[in-house]
Known about the structure:
- 44% of the residues lie in helices and 15% in strands.
- It is an alpha/beta fold.
- It folds into two domains: 5-145, NAD(P)-binding Rossmann-like Domain (Rossmann fold, 3-Layer(aba) Sandwich), CATH 3.40.50; 152-256 and 293-381, RNA polymerase sigma factor, region 2, helix turn helix motif (Rna Polymerase Sigma Factor, Chain: A), CATH 1.10.1740.
- α14 (342-353) crosses α15.
Amino acid sequence: MTSPQHIAILGATGSVGRSALDVVKSIDGMEVFAISGRSQLDLLEQQAQEFHPKYVVAADPVTATPFQFRTDAEVLIGAEHLKTIASDPRVDTVLASIVGFAGLESALAAVEHGKRLALANKETLVVGGHLINAAAVRSGAEILPVDSEHSAIFQAIQSGKRSAVKKIVLTASGGPFREFHADEMHGVTVEQALAHPTWDMGRKISIDSATMMNKALEIIEAKWLFDISADQIEVVIHPQSLIHSMVTFVDNSTMAQMSPPDMRLPIQYALTWPDRVAGPAADFDFSVAHQFDFHPPDFDRFPALELGFEVARTGGSAGAVVNAANEAAVSAFLDRKLSFTDIVGACREVLEQHNFESHPTFEQLVAADRWARQEMAKWITA
Ligand code: NDP
Ligand code: MG
């Protein structure tokens, strides 16, 4: 019998983190070495009691310091410990499932230390794809996508040579406003935007799906993961979310991956690859009728898509700026300080004002992130 894989789950209390723990519970050979959370400390404590990790990281000292954790695990307080855990020599795999820019530094540490990085945090590649890929070349770290579209591409792409890939087709559900007229989108509420038709996810990505900024981020993510140009990426609306993405080869054969929408499958594949094992995800039910629709996206109603292609082409610091502007805009929308239709336009304006850097260092990315958040704050209060 081979020794168990030691896994660190960064963002264990989130939607992806909870699904990952479900996977770990259902398959053999995984041991939870560390978990992290930020605000949901009761849940983090409960997870520690159930999975017996060696370490628990509570990222926010303000909430965690007064909290009395009842656990045998060693509790580390402060975001700097995310890096400590991600680089611990006893860890084999790091699941990066923190949301936003906050997940970049620990994901980068995991790659620098040669871990397998199961990557849910797409913002990591959007902001610092060049740093992550260069670090992976140096350390030999494997980067396995958890995002369902990129997992689908990763699965489909294995059926041909990389040199024979013609294009990648990213599927998108279209979100809750797929059929809304442009005029109807002005007044949409937080509740409407959070109600995703096919996926149950964290708040930030749910809003990103509604604006289609999520697909924009995924275009950039695909570019870095599969070393492909923006011109070889296409987006198609597939409302059923059953086909999770496709790869077309030069002979015009298109390979698709399909399964019921359940994040536990791509999470599991990132943990077990190249093996496939029985897990908690449900089988496809062919005893009932299914319909597969594909529509071209509406670039006018969803301007985020064009922005995504542009940023994928530009590279450099553009990803950091658009990502930070979007994080700040989404948070303002959730706080009811910005209207839904202003999110993407404001991001474009912030992007257009920034001083472009073609090969930013980590420190320059941090500065670009901070600058873009300040610019967005000014935009909102102007
Ligand atoms: P959630 O909001 O549900 O969870 C985020 C996790 O990160 C929580 O554990 C949260 O802790 C923690 N966290 C939040 N902010 C910080 C911070 N500043 N420092 C440290 N930890 C923090 O998000 P999701 O699980 O939905 O998404 C996680 C990532 O995965 C995102 O990048 C998303 O784009 C990507 N993804 C998600 C999918 C999904 O189905 N949900 C699908 C594909 C990709 P706490 O809750 O305790 O505050
Ligand atoms: Mg996705």
